Amino acid sequence: MSQIYAGSPRPSLTRQPSAATDVGDGSKPNDYLIWAILACLCPVWPINIVGLTFSVMSRNSLQQGNVDGARRLGQNAKILSIVSLVGGIVIIVITIVINWGGEYLDFVIWINVEF
């Protein structure tokens, strides 16, 4: 597995950074693990589980020395975590409006009928 194959369709498999994605800043890529864990608390489970998986894969790639792959997987984890958080907040707000909004309307109708 440690051999470098010339003409590989996926350059990240060769564990050599590509010139197109190497920014040269020397900083390690972020795996967004905290965001992925927080996203798991939102009710968008298929998406946030995949985001958590990408985050762990990004951390593993960085530990193996594959900085390009870690950066790519970290970006995927970030996008999926953001989608999960926004989707979860939307679902929670809609649920609150439907549940409490219905009780409020019943209360207002009851007051109007009584008076």
Summarize the structure in words.
The protein is an all-alpha fold. 64% of the residues lie in helices and 0% in strands. The protein is built from 3 helices and no strands. The chain has helices spanning 33-39, 45-63, 67-114. Helix 1 (33-39) runs antiparallel to helix 2 and helix 2 runs antiparallel to helix 3 (67-114). The longest helix is centred in the last third of the chain and has 48 residues, at 67-114. The chain is rod-shaped and about 70 Å long. Mean pLDDT is 80; it is low at 18-23.
Please give the structural blueprint.
Elements: H1 33-39, H2 45-63, H3 67-114
Please tell me what the overall shape is. rod-shaped
Gyration radius, in Å:
23 Å
Structural class: mainly alpha
Poorly predicted ranges = 18-23
Distance between the termini: 80 Å
Number of helices: 3
Topology order in helix (H) and strand (E) letters: HHH
* Nearest-integer average pLDDT: 80
Quaternary form = single chain
**DSSP strand content:** under 5%
Helix content: 55-70%
Major sheet summary line: none
Number of strands: 0
List descriptors.
CD225/Dispanin_fam; transmembrane; CD225/Dispanin; 64% helix; single chain; transmembrane helix; mainly alpha; Proline-rich transmembrane protein 2; 115 residues
Q: What's this, in brief?
A:
The protein has helices at about 35-40, 45-65, 65-115. It is mainly α and about 120 residues long.
